[in-house]
Amino acid sequence: MKDLFYNRIVKDPRHKNCEILSYEIIDSYLFSSWHMKYANVHNDFIEFFIKNHHDGFNPYLLEPDTIPAFIELLRQHEDDLYKAQVMA
Fold this sequence. Notes:
Blueprint: H1 2-9, H2 43-53, H3 67-76, H4 78-87
Domain BLUF: 1-37
InterPro entries: Acylphosphatase-like_dom_sf, BLUF_domain
Pfam families: BLUF
C-alpha cells in the first residue's frame, strides 16, 4: 500500500493534495470496473454530504464513521461512474 500510494500516486503530477481517508485489508476489490479516474458528482453524493455534514459535496469532511457509508455509496454507483468515464 505504501509503495503504491507514496511512490506512484503522490509522485504523479496529475494528483494534488492526496490523503488516505481509510485503510483496511480487503479480500476482494469493491470496484471491479472503476479505474480511479474520477467520480462525477451525483445527486446521491450531494445528499449524503448534506445529511452527514450539513454542507455540500466535500470529501475532506468525511470522518471515520462516515467513510464506509460513502464508499458503499460510490460502490452502488460504480456502473454510472464507469459509464461516465468511458463516454468522456
